[in-house]
Amino acid sequence: MALVEGCKHSLDITVPAAVVAAETEKVVAEIAKKVKMPGFRPGKAPISLVRGRYPNEIRQDVVDAVIPKALEEAFEKDKLKVVSRPSIVDLHFHEDQDLHFKVEFEVAPEFELGTYTGLTAKYEEPVVTDEDLTQRIDTIREQRAEYVNIDPRPAAEGDFAAVNLKSISGTEKPVERDDLQLKVGDADAVQAFNEQLVGMSPGEEKEFDVTYPGDYSEAALAGRSVRFNMKLNMLRRKELPVVDDDFAQDLGDYKTVDELKEAVRAAIMRERETESKTKARNELLDKLVDSHDFPVPMVFVDRQTESNIEQQISGLAQQGMDVSKLNLDWDKVKESQRERSTRDVKASLLLDKIADRESIVALQDEVDKEVQRYARSQRKPAAQIRMDLEKSGGLGRIAAQIRTEKTLNFLFDNARKEA
Hints:
Radius of gyration: 34 Å
CATH topology of the largest domain: Trigger factor, domain 2
Structural class: alpha+beta
Number of helices: 12
Distance between the termini: 50 Å
Strand content: 15-25%
Shape: elongated
Largest sheet: 5 strands, antiparallel
Order of helices and strands: EEHHHEEEHEEEHEEHHHHHHHE
CATH architecture of the largest domain: Orthogonal Bundle
């Protein structure tokens, strides 16, 4: 076996003429059964005529039969962990002679694990202050706020205006929103709306132009100048609930506001612990990758690059961008992702090797819990979800994700934390 580069290797393989001849006889016999030739009943044509009439078909069928067997034997003999589709780059096939070919392929890298315990990472035990708790409670109050209609009067900053909005010109597709609620004077809103709303009274209607910035969140409006018709239907004020025992009981299984605050404080703590732990684990993983130098199969890198790009495109689509209109040089995009993808693949291979050495596995009850969690999120029976996952190979992916998570936790638990 010869090394081409990285994880790419090549083999020169010879298939004896006797093996090729025997396979040729089988192929010719099979073709003779199927073909129809003038003057002969189906399957009764002389072998010599079949050979003369269908040489290309016979050659291709022989190659398709002989080469996979030869590859399997060669890979098994050398105990090769081939991870890419073999590529035949040089084939010599002549009648009554040995068949020779050269094959190129990638193999899983062999590498030795260096130090992976006792690595240092920045980590501070999170704290939750009373101010943090108050801010989170205020957020909950905002989410449960009620909007109360107020008597007609000119709109002022702080009011909430219910409007009917309709585009007149400037958009590819008409924009029409009924009973759209806008906060008058909202610093995050397009200022043209604030300027037009101040002083308007319920029942009043006006037309005006709005110029959207080029980086506006709605791609259909970004960079455009749009003329709108807007009618103010009514004004409302926002009323926040009082933080008392009734408020706590409305939110869940809490008897008092103190119980609610205790639960909210614990939730914030869990969030911050997860965030701090994730940062530390990522730092450990980066150090692990930096301290191990080994080649990775390009087939893995390409697959990881595709996955990374798909995730990014999905994220853009969720933000409202029409990804079908993206005018990108995808070769350049893939090349820009290659370094990150290579590190991702290295990290994955390292975590797998550590998991093997430390006998880290996904337990059945862990997989079951994840299936049940997914079933609840999909609002489907767990049995149906499990059946679907078994068909799609999803159970294996879940087990792999759990194993990776446990391995990352192992690295974190066995690391030296520094503030």
